[in-house]
Every structure is written in C-alpha cells, then in structure tokens.
Amino acid sequence: MNELAQDSSSVSALGALFLICMAVLNFSLPRQRAMMPLLITTCYMPLGQALVVAGLHFQFLRILLLLGIVRVWVRREGADLRLTHLDRLFITWGAATLVMGTLNHPSFDRFINRSGDVFNAFGTYFLFRCWMRDLNDVLTAVRLIAVLLVPLAISMAIEKTTRHNVFSVFGGVPEITLVREGKLRCQGAFRHPILAGTFAATSFPLCVALWFGGRRDRSLGLIGAVASMVCTVAAASSGALLALMGTGLGLGLWWFRTRMRLVRWGTIMGIVGLAVVMKAPVWYLFSRLSEVAGGTGWYRSYIIDQAISHFNEWWLVGSAYTANWAPAGEVTVGDPNNMDIINHFVAEGLGGGILKLGLFLAMIVLGFKTVGRCVSDGQLPRQGAIMVWAFGVSLFAHCLSFFSVSYFDQIIVIWYWLLAVMAALISVPEVQPLPAQTAESAETIPIEEFPPEDSDGGPRVHVSW
Question: What CA–CA distance (Å, rounded) separates 230 from 156?
Fold first, then answer.
C-alpha cells in the first residue's frame, strides 16, 4: 500500500471517534463477526486519517490490524489454524515482496516501505484466516459486505447528484468530485473512482448468490446487488464496468460448470485466433474495445507492450524505474522515475520480478482450482455450490480489473479477504452430502457446523442452507 505524502499525524476528532468505536468492536464482537471493524473501515474510512510515529505511517487500517493481532494472540484464535497450499504460497509471495522489492532499489526507506506493504498483507490475510473457520463464517462475511454496500451506494448517489464527497470530512479524498469527459467519477471513501467501482463490481456476484440462500437472505442479496450496481455506475469507470459485465458472464457459466474444460480451451483458441488475424499484438484488443466503449484502452495495451519489450529490466528482482517506458515522457505526477502503471500484473512483476509475479498467478490459479473442486465434487447442496461459484466469479472479476488498475488503497483488504476465503474452502476437510429436503425446509435451515472429527482429527463439516 502506498504511503500518503505526509510527515505528521492527521487525525480529526471525528476520525478519532470512529477509530475508538472500531477498537471497541474489535475486542467485543464474537470471533464469527470479528472481521466487521476491518470491513467497515475499508468501506468508509479514507487513508487520509493516519498517525505518524518516528516516520512510520499508521493508517487506521494498520492500527486495527495491530489490535486484531493482539486479540487473536490473547484469545488464541489462531491456535488450531492449519496451513494450506494457498497459505504457503501467500507467505512465499510476501517474502518475495519484501526481499525482491527491496533489492530492486536498495535503501532503508525502500525496506520500510516494503515492510509496510507486507505487514498489511500478512496482517489482513491471516486475521481473516483465523476468523473464518468454515462456510458459516464465510457466509457471515458475505452478508456483512452486502449490508455495507448500501450506505456506500447512498453516499455515492449523493455524490453523483451534488458533486460533493461526504467522506471528504475524514481527509484523503477530494471534496469536489472529479469530472472526466463530462461524467462525474464518484469514489466514496476510496482513493480512486475505479477502485470504488471495482469493489462494488467484484461484490456483485456474492450478493446475487445470497438470493439462492433462503428466504432471510433473498432481500439482502437483492438490495446488495442493486447497491453494487449503483456504486459501479456512479464511479463512471470503464474498468469497473468491464468487471461488472465479467461477473454476468461468469454467473452465466454456472450452467456450463461441468464443461469448463471446453470453455477454457475455447477461450485459448479464441485468443490464438485473434492473435493470427490482428495486425497488432493481441493485448491491443483493449485499445480496440476502448474505441467503442471509451476509456484508456490504448494506454492499458501500451503498458503490457512495454513490460514485454523491457522484460530484461525487471525479470530478476523487479524495477523501480519505468520513465523510459512512458510515451512522450509522460511520467507520474510527483515521481519523475516512473510512468503510471495501471496494470496490477505488471506492477507485481515490477515489485519483485518474475518470481513475485509467478507466485501471484499461482495463487489465482489455485483459487480457481479450489472453486472447481468444491463445485464439481457434488457434496455441496445447490445453494452452497452457487455461493462457492460466486467466489470464483468474483476472483475472475478481480483478474479483469487487474488489467485496468494496480490496487493501492484499502481495496487490498477485499482482495486478501477473497484469498483467505479460498484458503478456508481448501481447509474444510470434508463436506457431507445432504439428505433430501423440501423447498420450504431448505429455506429455513441455516448453515450449521457439526463437531465430530474425521480420521485426521479435523472437524467434519455438514453444510445445509
């Protein structure tokens, strides 16, 4: 996470009150809802509120991570956490972020900056891992996100009509909404409109999946889905809209879930076909699309082209200098050494070379494989399988967004939460098949956890909706 350009603490009275409330919730809520302060802060608190101690920046998010770690340590909530393959990949990726990210521009300041990023990553991911033990906890988080989307949608709708961002009272976001090409680009508490829109778009399939979860979740799912669409449209970001359309495609593929191998090979063959018929490289398809839908498609294609052309500059440990990639010397404002890298995949490579990028891609692939295994093994009820599929769709939407923006603010909490969900799905040792039940009973029976142990000592989880 990029640090804010400030050398002194900047905490308002309203911000301090918010932090106190979140701290109280952190220690008072039961484990199943302990993630609420982090998710609330992600949605409603800009990074402008921060304490600076000895040159170290402690945004509210980091303070809550520290408090969460204290809670987990005191209550031993992570004592029975078993590391999965995804957990190990994440740890290795974090190590590469610190080591390679420091080596590509060796300095103490760089080490401190990379250490802050790794603390954010490890703290967020493993707190969620400690607090989400099974599918019940995962569903609780989805319900909370659906609820949190509603006030965010209302605030962004107000911003759309008044051009005033209500979250500007906390600092860190502008009071007057940005206008581009005649459209207001609302951002809520996020540092950029595309990130606000991306959060909403990637949450849309999870809200849709709630609709299939029973009578008590249908209204919540519908309201959350509408709120996510409102936020996405208010952001006026082509990247976020592309992610939202991608979720529609992903949800539609539910009916082809047993034929995904054909879908994957068909996609690959389609890309190869485009590469054959297009005069430009296939990644300039973004440029072609922007000619129809608008946006910065050419620039997105150009970044990929430059990353491939300058592969020798970043493949080993990454690179902290990309000014020579910039078209006509268009470097980032305030950083003459770099162009604006609006591609998260390229940013991963620049942050730690081919090793860091490879580990990042491996986590994504493992996430998709986990969803496929859970859905195809036939042991989940239909409603539960739809929810798991929705997580795969959300992961797909994030991947689409990675071609449009490099995550740099509190949206990383949502990304690490999604990875933690995938790890939680891996860690469920066995899901028992359900006995037949009527449609009415399927709506009223909640998800339940049954404690008997299986052969390897892990909990045997029975899931019903």
Answer: 8
